[in-house]
Design a protein that fits this description.
Elements (H helix, E strand, L loop, with lengths): L4 H9 L17 H10 L4 H18 L3 H92 L2
């Protein structure tokens, strides 16, 4: 009669044992048949039970069959794909948040630039008006100076 390793562990110890190795799917191992073979070879019943228990523990906790590895690989690939999808979703969300913040920052900068441009334009207009006034004053002063000089020259040369 073939029994699984887990049946053996639960039957002999009353508890499920997890060893230090990876816990893969159960493989077919008949500890009773193994004990009987050991006893037939001259090993005492107590030693045969200890050997069967130890081998059962080793086989159950540390041996992986190709099917176990294939399932593990499939599970790992599925978990990696799910992780990749979560990371990509988080990256997309992060990119959207960053873009939204950049748009808001750009709008604030543009608003500040518009305000700055308006203030500079007003100052330039003020300075331009002031300069125009000073130029006009200089024109009048120059015209007065020229007229005065003409009057002096006329008075000097015309009796």
């Amino acid at each position: 009669m073939n029994r699984t390793l887990y049946w053996y562990i639960e039957e002999l110890s009353g508890t499920k044992k997890d060893g230090d190795c990876l816990n893969f799917m159960a493989i077919q191992f008949d500890p009773i048949d193994y004990m009987q073979q050991l006893e037939a070879a001259g090993v005492s019943k107590a030693e045969a039970e200890v050997h069967a228990r130890a081998l059962g523990h080793l086989v159950g906790n540390c041996v992986a069959l190709p099917g176990d590895l294939a399932r593990l690989e499939h599970d790992l690939r599925r978990e990696i794909k799910a992780l990749e999808e979560r990371i990509n979703a988080k990256l997309v969300a992060l990119e959207e948040r960053i873009n939204a913040k950049l748009v808001a920052l750009e709008e604030r900068i543009n608003a500040k630039l518009v305000g700055l441009e308006q203030r500079l334009t007003a100052r330039i207009d003020t300075l331009e008006a002031k300069i125009d006034g000073q130029i006009m004053q200089l024109r009048w002063m120059f015209a007065t100076l020229v007229a005065t000089n003409i009057a002096i020259v006329v008075k000097l040369f015309i009796p």
